[in-house]
Predict the 3D structure of the following.
Amino acid sequence: MVRVAVVGGGSYHWAPRLLTDFANTASLSDAEVVLHDIDARRAAEMAALGTEIARRRAIALSVTAEPDRRKALAGADFVVTAFSVGGFDSMRHDLEIPERYGVVQPIGDSPGPGGIMRALRSVPVLLEIARDVADVAPGAWLVNVTNPLTALCRAVTRETFVPTVGLCNEYVATTFVLSLLLDCGMHEIDAVLGGVNHFPLATSLRVGEEDGFARLRALLDDDALQDSGLWIELPEQMAYEKVSTGDRWTKRDVLANNAVRIELFRRFGVLACSGDHHSTEFIPGFVHERTGWGASRRIHVYRLARHMADAADDVAHYERLREGGEVPHVPSGELVAPLIDAIVTARPRNLPVNVPNAGNVTNLPDGALVEVMGTVDADGVRGRDHTTVPGVMGEWLRRVHASQELTVEAAVTGDRGLVLEAMLTDPLCQHLAYDDVIAMTEELLDATARWLPQFSAS
Amino acid sequence: MAPRIVVVGGGSYQWVPKLLIDVVNTESLREAEIVLEDVDPAPLPDMVAFVEHLAALARIPLTVTATTDQREALSGADYVVVTISTGGFDSMRHDLAIPERYGIRQAVGDTVGPGGVMRALRNIPVLLGIARDMAELCPDAWLLNLTNPMTTLCRAVTRETPVKAVGLCHEVAGAQHTLSRLLRADYDAFELTVAGVNHLPIVTELRVDGVDAFERLRALLDDPPADERVRLRLAANRVKFALFERYGVLPGAGDRHLVEFFPGFLTEQSGWGERWGVALTTIADREAWLDYYKAEFENLRAATEVPKEHSGEMVAPIIDSFETGTSRVLPLNLPNAGQCPDLPVDVVVEAMCAVDRDPPRGRTPVTLPPVLAEWVRRIVGSQEATVEAAVTGDRDRVVDAMLLDAFAGRIDFDSLVRMTDDMLAATSRWLPQFA
């Protein structure tokens, strides 16, 4: 029987998805799941949901809440971490302060000033968890889904010996976009990836036995083909803007709503396997005042209101599930359950994983935290491929990595000067005046000081 | 045997007078054979007469000839000094004006930034033409490059030809001069440790008579004396001292160059550098300098003795070391063979090198503070793309170089692509490889 501890187990976003996926996964349907949250009431609420799901499905899945973190972690085989230090109270500053200085962040959770600040808040908490894992659940896998994924996983693998993997659903979402463009099934798509989280870069692509990049290029060269319809109806939550005339959605619409990665693919032959709202936080010049902050390429800029609306949707989803709605049989698209399944059943799977570089991405040093296609089996998780991201995109990747390393160093040491260096090297801050980067950094550190104990004067 | 020294761009009012005064004042070069070559024949007779005048004043057997035939000039050369500017002010005008229309103002525009990229595209094919002729006509000669952008030009030669090339720049000497005044210490008492690229050479250690002088510099910055000259000197170097206070190492080039590597100092809200005491060098400034060089040249032609003051340029000293074996330590731009372990091998780096009869070489590997190492690596990334663009004549590679340049984040992606197109179009007559 597998024991899974979830830290941040009271999350309206994560707990319903994870519990449903576990219920749908044979190897996990009798798992012992322990939910821990600093909000004990929420953890208990989610444990009740889990128990209800097990009852409705008549499976042995056991879900309990444990307010003591070390007790929750004790004996775990897998520890899932899904938390947000300070929630929207802190995130508000991540978005609003930089915007006053002329930095608009589509999301604000990866690099960029917001991503840096989020890392500073979350790294110390995750390191405490990791040290507890080493102590009371030695050998357990730490499966992190908390953002910024790269900086957080890097901090753990840099500072502890805990086996760690970061998981994100962006690649899965990309396979759906490609399935729309290339008229194929998502499972037929396989990419060689070299990148970091939210900027995983495909250097080659297979669709079944075919060269996926050749098929994508053929589509880009074929105007008539772009006017053809989609094999499946476009899910509403993709929030695409229709550019084609006529009633039905076409491939042209899909291309137009992925304009940045298509432009980059045309120019550099490398495909960003994350949405444009993420990848444009890794590259200067797309979310720029002169583009209407990304509007010219339909980049979604979330801002706090959209993040909060998403959170409200999560609550509504949870409540529907609790009030007796059907427990969905479709996978959530998140990769936690597939990863655990592959390890415990020893049935190998290839999944996009965030792990320390072991020669997989030649642009980056070994030990750097990279997102690559991984092989997951009884031996755990490791990168599958070795690849080099060519040219400009390889250099952009290297630059972001440098800023992320500074972020981790700053988070671990509590050195304000290093926070500034991370900001100065960040892709979204390259147009700012030197004085403004200093002032913005100070303002961000001061506004969120209560979540940053490592920076308080000793 | 007397060395044959060829100056390509030998009609330059800026370079020929000072370089030749240094040569005439160098004992080992008194019998040198000077060849002045230029695509423009107009200034050559005056230049020849001037050098003959110097030799007569110094009573030395040095000879001088002039030609517009590059291959004739290079035949049998021992040293080839290159001081060219393809298209001159006519082309450079576009390097500054077009980016300005898009919101990018450059302090100099000859190193990095859109102007530095374009200047490399124009000069690299010309320099490679010289180097290829050298490989054929004087394969053992040294190419001494003084032309900007120095890093990408030297890199193109060492990447594409077997010719021995070194880039010589006076910026480190200028910084050393500033420091000698500020710290009231003799210029020759300084010992510098340097790593970086041209116009961003970073002094990682500074000693005066063997004693650490960064400590003294810090004390001076913390509590500057009331002396007006010191105050002015500090004000004229605010960027390098801001970087020194931040990183504990001192960029050893003029502030107007440094701000092009750290464009956060060169923004609209800082008055395009004014807040940091940086003035933008305009074409009008350069035209005024040229007028000054020409006037100064006329004065020198009428001189009754050879000026004794050394120009601070390194052409004569390095040739003297090559010829006599006299040991010197000079800041040189050479392929990275371990001088700068933070940077890729083979890219051209600026570091203090030992010079004597053997090939010049770095002394010890010099590492940079990690954050500055990253800034230099980013610059190298753009410079490598620049060289690739210049050599291949591929317009997309020019966009690559612009996208990786430190100014790139200033404007949006589409504007940057359009700006690149505009610059290529406006200067196309100097860019045959893109035709």
Q: What stands out?
A: The longest helix of chain A spans residues 112-136. Chain A touches chain B through 33 residues (CB under 8 Å). The CA atoms of residues 183 and 423 of chain A lie 42 Å apart. Residues 393-437+447-455 of chain A form one domain.
